[in-house]
Amino acid sequence: MNYRRLGRAGLKVSELSFGSWVTYGNQMDTKAAGECMAAAYDMGVNFFDNAEVYAAGESERIMGEVLKKLAWPRLRYAVSTKFYWGITDGPNGKATLNRKYLMQAIDGSLRRLQLDFVDLVYCHRPDPETPIEETVWAMHDMIRQGKALYWGTSEWSASEIMAAWQIAERHHLAKPVVEQPEYHLFHRRRVEVEYRHLYHDIGLGLTTWSPLASGLLTGKYRAGIPEGSRATIPRMKFLVPGLTDPRRNEAVGQLETVAKELGCTLPQLAIAWCARNPHVSSVITGASRVEQVRENLLAVEVVPKLSAPMLERIEGIVAGHGDRAP
Ligand code: NDP
């Protein structure tokens, strides 16, 4: 495993990390989650991603149980959470980044995670109804209180990130150091075009999500929807049209030929492709069982095999299927 700086911040994160969306508390109980985290840690993962809203707090509770049981040295791993969606009703409990919600949400997360602090805390989406200045001050205070070490954003526009950074710069507050965007072979415009100048200008780091496009890039949806897959989960139905898209699945078939030539599997190729981007600090992988964790993390061995001609071939295959013109 290689470790990369989180943009210009000093924190070093494993280039592949492990997250808990959909899986913890839905497909996996504490025992299964523990097996996956232990396998990931043994293969060098030092960053575990979570969010308050995942399984309505249950995902944090499970991760907290696992961390307590495994009792790794605190310096050896980093944990994140994210705030915005909320898990309680009421005008200040949902879809907000206001100061009241943020200052209370962190306490709930720390309790469920059984931690004194989280390493990274993300504003899970932008909130048009709270001034960015109010959010920046709250994130700064959370850090000053020792409840979080670094903060960042998830799916904010480049101009929103820049506005937050400039407010922090002006008032000598803790700056956002990382963004968490979706990034995979079919979804790349934001990372490769919109944020382009932020890497150099403010040293933004990236921890990217859904490297397998929720499973599409494993090839498992080429022949329909397999039993037990994410697409069979009732509240994930919104993913079905994308996962079963015939044209994208045909491109996935062509990518499989490339993977075979490289001596790797399709998920390994897709994850390595994300990690080959030097602006990515960590590719957050997801898995519903431990075999997937073991397979996916071996993608680190594929990254150096992605030569310029190989990347060009991949470009040719995905051209016209994603959100970025070739
Ligand atoms: P992926 O796109 O990689 O999808 C992971 C899913 O694909 C698994 O749960 C599994 O689903 C299937 N899969 C994984 N590996 C294999 C394999 N080797 N063979 C076959 N199937 C496989 O990532 P996620 O969408 O899970 O996102 C990763 C993480 O990113 C999340 O856990 C979360 O931490 C973060 N995230 C952040 C978001 C944000 O808004 N900030 C949004 C979404 C995710 P199954 O077996 O059920 O089919």
Low-confidence stretches: none
Question: Order of helices and strands, N to C?
Answer: EEEHEHEHEHEHEHHEHHHEHH
Helical content band: 25-40%
By CATH, the architecture is named Alpha-Beta Barrel
Oligomeric state, counting identical vs distinct chains: single chain
Name the overall outline: globular
Could you tell me which ligands this complex binds, including any ions or cofactors?
A: NADPH dihydro-nicotinamide-adenine-dinucleotide phosphate
Q: Write out the strand line-up for the largest beta sheet, numbering strands in chain order.
A: 3-4-5-6-7-8-9-10
Distance between the termini: 31 Å
Q: What is the number of helical segments per DSSP (H or I, 4+ residues)?
A: 12
The top-level CATH class is Alpha Beta
CATH topology: TIM Barrel
Estimate the strand proportion. 5-15%
Beta strands, count: 10
CATH superfamily: NADP-dependent oxidoreductase domain
Would you mind describing this structure in some detail?
- By secondary structure, the protein is an alpha/beta fold.
- The chain has one domain (3-215, 274-289): TIM Barrel.
- The chain is 40% helix and 14% strand.
- The protein contains twelve helices and ten strands.
- It has an eight-stranded parallel β-barrel, surrounded by five helices.
- Helix 1 crosses helix 2 (58-70) and helix 4 (132-144) packs across helix 5.
- The longest helix is centred in the last third of the chain and has 17 residues, at 246-262.
- The two termini are 31 Å apart.
- NADPH dihydro-nicotinamide-adenine-dinucleotide phosphate is lined by residues 19-23, 27, 49, 154-155, 180, 209-215, 218, 220, 229-230, 267, 284-288, 292, 295-296.
